[in-house]
Amino acid sequence: MPTVQDLARLLEAAAPLAYQESYDNAGLQCGDPQAEITGVLITLDCTPAVVAEAVRRGCNVVVAHHPVIFRPLKRLTGANEVEQTIIAALKNDVAIYAAHTNLDNVRGGVNDKLAEKLGLLKTRVLAPQSGTLARLITYVPNRPEDQQTDLAGHVLAALYAAGAGQVGQYSDCSFRTEGTGTFTPGNGTQPAIGTQNQAETVAELRLEVLLPLHRQVAVLRALRAAHPYEEIAYELIKLENVHQEIGAGLVGELHEALAPAEFRQLLKRQLLVPVVRHTAFEKPIKTVAICGGAGAFLIGAARASGADAYVTGDVKYHEFFGAEGQLMLCDVGHFESEQFTGEVFRDLLTAGFERTFAVLIAETPTNPVQYDC
């Protein structure tokens, strides 16, 4: 039977914890990692009522988008809803797992689901992250007698399998140059090439690959397993390049341009919202930027992207001025922009596990905002 730890590994393969923002607290919030899963209940927010629903429906895991423990807890007395939620979960052996900004910042996550609901095409990351990539350089023998085994190909295949060599939508990417390596094996060594205490000169290939930093341990493990040398020379260099597939928000194209009023009707219809707060804008809407949740921090990026509209939630009064007449800034609500995130979790879990347990979307309403229209 899959365990809570198996679930965490599966979700973190899709949305690595390394991609969460510094203020966030994604991951396993409470519960026994070794507990076998009897059922999973998916929700945007975990509350005492959600925990009660999980127990009622035979689920011992709640997967939420928003972490219930967001700030450090100093006590567990049930004095507020957060403490009440954790106490209820612990009493009923219910584990709580959250994937928050790490799921916001990956393709296939929150924003891709929002883009899907709005019918956006040709999507790309609105604000790519920097500092998430590294370059690995290593050296392998390049001798004529080794050509049948293709040592470079063997090492590269292992690195690719461990997560290296991906550049955007291109896989198995590497660079190689020819050179000469020198070394003298010391006492007690078992060199793959050469003899102890004798200087050796070897034709070598310098191999270079990119890797996401969160795959560093796995890639170096693969390097050590596949490399022919007893002592492996390598360099791992952190890069400031932006990762085009990791970051906040998306920008894409509508199938056809819409008048601003028509676009707002599309938002209401597709996102099931009665009200859209927006700035004045008279030009047709074709290019659309989006960010699920509180995305006012990306208003400038949306303008710079050339978007005609930017759709997000939690925009404050003064932040609406940030549109500067260059786009229509649309606030559809925090919950409303993320309400389909449960579908992302459901698809990941049903594809990643054999159907030995139920994966259910919570029926408990958790949106604290109500509308009178």
TrEMBL record:
Q: Note the InterPro entries from the entry.
A: DUF34/NIF3 (IPR002678), DUF34/NIF3_bac (IPR017221), DUF34/NIF3_sf (IPR036069), N-reg_PII/ATP_PRibTrfase_C (IPR015867)
Protein origin, superkingdom:
Bacteria
- What Pfam families is this protein classified in? DUF34_NIF3
Record-annotated membrane-spanning stretches: none
Arranged from A to Z, the UniProt key words for this protein are: Metal-binding
Similarity comment text for this entry: Belongs to the GTP cyclohydrolase I type 2/NIF3 family.
NCBIfam families hit by this protein: YbgI_SA1388
What is the protein's name according to its record? GTP cyclohydrolase 1 type 2 homolog
Q: Give the classification, highest ranks.
A: Bacteria, Pseudomonadati, Bacteroidota, Cytophagia, Cytophagales
